[in-house]
Amino acid sequence: MTEERTTLLEFPCEFPIKIMGARVDGFAQTVLEVVLRHAPDFDAGAMQMRPSAKGNYLAITCTLNATSQAQLDALYRELSSHPMVKVVL
Q: Is the CB of residue 28 less than 8 Å from the CB of residue 76?
């Protein structure tokens, strides 16, 4: 028996994901590589980056063309489990 999840989203849709982590070399590139694994059509030029007030952290927003809830769930799981990532919203 398979359980279907109910979602309020209609796919495909533009979906912003915010990823936060320490402002270290390679963080943005790592986030981009993970996002591209799940959304190969994501435009890297569309990444928005904002450092924290003291410059210790970096917030990255990636707005991708989400095709399914399963795609978003897999992306969230991989980003959340990455050691460089502190928060995924």
A: no
- At 3-34, the pLDDT tens digits run 556 778 899 999 999 999 999 999 999 999 99
Q: Is the pTM of this model over 0.85?
A: yes
| Torsion sign (Cα): 19, 21, 25, 26 | negative
Q: 47 near 32, Cβ under 8 Å?
A: yes
> What are the residues whose beta carbons fall under 8 Å from the beta carbon of 82, sequence distance 6 or more?
30, 34
Q: Which residues pair with 63 in a beta bridge?
A: 16
Decide: helix, strand or coil at residue 13: strand
H or E, element range at 49: strand 48-51
Backbone φ and ψ for 13, nearest 5 degrees, come out as: -155, 160
What is the three-class DSSP state of 89? coil
Dig out the tokens for 16 from the structure. Answer: 């912003």
Nearest to 50 by CA among 62, 58, 39: 58
